[in-house]
Amino acid sequence: MNNNVNDKILLPNGRAIERKYEKALIMDEAYQNRYEELIMNNTKGGAVLMYVHSKMDENGKLVSNLDCIAEALNFSRSTVARAVAFLKDEFSDLVAVDKQHNVSRFSVDTRRCFKA
Questions:
Q1: What is the DSSP letter of 102?
Q2: pLDDT tens digits, 59-72
């Protein structure tokens, strides 16, 4: 086992684990359970949240318009709009969604889910 600090991922609880991946999404257990519930019950919403996770910055933020998300996921704009509304209404504990003008702002609580 290499003891180089760059080969470790520091978890929110202060524990360090060995880095095994270039990029990884780390979730606490409750977040992961809700994430799995979302994916099992609404695949379009799950796909949108996966997109948010893949594009969010280190602060858990993503600013995007629905057209960009629709193009990236090969969905219609209305499908993405319905998925975002569903996330906002039913899964706001996973991602907060705020809309300003024609742009959606997504925020993930980095104490519960973060990119490492």
A1: T
A2: 999 999 999 999 99
